[in-house]
Amino acid sequence: MSVGRDQTTDRAAEQAARSSYGKLIAILAAQGRDIAAAEDALSDALVSALTVWPARGVPKNPEGWLVTAARNRLKNAARAAAVRRGGVPELQRRLALPDPDGHIPDQRLRLMFVCAHPAIDPAARTPLILQTVLGLDAGRIARAFLVDAAAMSQRLVRAKQRIRDAGLRFALPGPDDMTDRLGAVLDAIYAAFGQGWDDLERLETDASLTGEAIWLARLIVALLPAEPEPKGLLALMLYCSARRRARRDGTGRFVPLAEQDARLWDRTMIIEAEGLLTGAAQAGQFGRYQCEAAIQSVHVQRPITGRINLAALRVLYDLLVQQTDALGARIGRAVVIAEAGDPDAGLVALDALPGDRIAGHQPWWVARAHVAALAGRGDEARDGLDRAIALTEDTALRVHLKERRDALG
Amino acid sequence: MQFMLILNETPEDFARRADPAEAEAYWGGWNAFIGAMAQAGVIVKGDGLQGPAMATTLRVRDGKRRVEDGPFADTKEQLGGYFVIEVPDLDAALDWAAKAPSALTASVEVRPILPMPPQG
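Output (structure tokens, whole complex):
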């Protein structure tokens, strides 16, 4: 067994695990409703892949191999459980399940809507989707939601237990219920996109989180063509993705939005986003994601009009904070207030945000420093940037923030 | 899967049972609900209960019985009846719960029946 072959095998296993995790969990959990058992079975299958593949070569269809291996584990576990329980309820439950290869375009979609079931703790729905469908670990989810990691793990375990034992229907809900559950699903897709977006170091491919988020949003737009918010979310992510290449200059340095070379923006994506946003508006139901997309639309007008339309941004942010209690919306609004000429009011708005949520929140410190500088408070700006730099993991972004701090003198 | 529909009612609901002006509508609502479940063949068992004023609560402490008149807890909603139904999943159980007359005035708690514990 050569070293080279070993690495290829490891990579194949890792690739299958990373790009297909959510899909595989969705396939495996569909039969027994037991997400935790599906996760255990899949990690067992991955471990055996690492021993079997180097010896026998990587199978032609690694995902298929993993599903078969994991299903065998699940069957053995279920058989043992059925013997323990006298067998009948488990069998009945299995027979009552809908065909797992039904008409749903993507198994992940079904699992997402199950995770958003009204019988699950509302605070657990979006995190559960992120963990089971998008493969994020509990620690990362906890950071994204600004909550304690142990509390988040517990919330997730409880939710999975509920799906298994409370008898939740493991199927795509009817149209009315689907609309009710849409919010949690869209929030999870956007949170996954945000996680992938912050990961500047890694090259973006379709298998990455941002690509996955866009793919899932496309599925939902196709599934619910009359709903405006999925279109808004897809538009929002396309506007952001369009600027991906412009976020770094030729030497890999970070370029903030206001200084980006608009020629590097992806016009095809922007045109698609504008079309989606217009289409969404026809439903006459404004919502958070349409609002965020509209904000991005204002930003892409800059190269055309030569200036950023702060008045429009101000109106949109005022609307946005009515649609969501997301911290980012309030921070964005404060920055726009400051940039529109009232930095003191911007500082007041920033300082009014809850202390426990902002203390470790890097974007708040960046915004605080920026607005303090606009208000002529150099010391506060420097302090803010120091805190922001300490909270920044990405190297290029840290260099950029250090330069900004040094420029303050 | 089997679920218990735990049908809670308000004091006003209990009062309607014997109110000449209300009783017919009250029982008519329940009979329609129960009839629909019976027709669908989902009922495993079920009963209506007399009101909380007829409840007697007992505890054994230090080997002694303590008996009190009245229900276990004095709350706005009290147990008025229950059904155990056999349906494919929670969503189907919730659809039946939503049809119970007391869902409009009080609440219906839906709980899965505990599977048989391991033998031996």
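Chain B has four helices and six strands.
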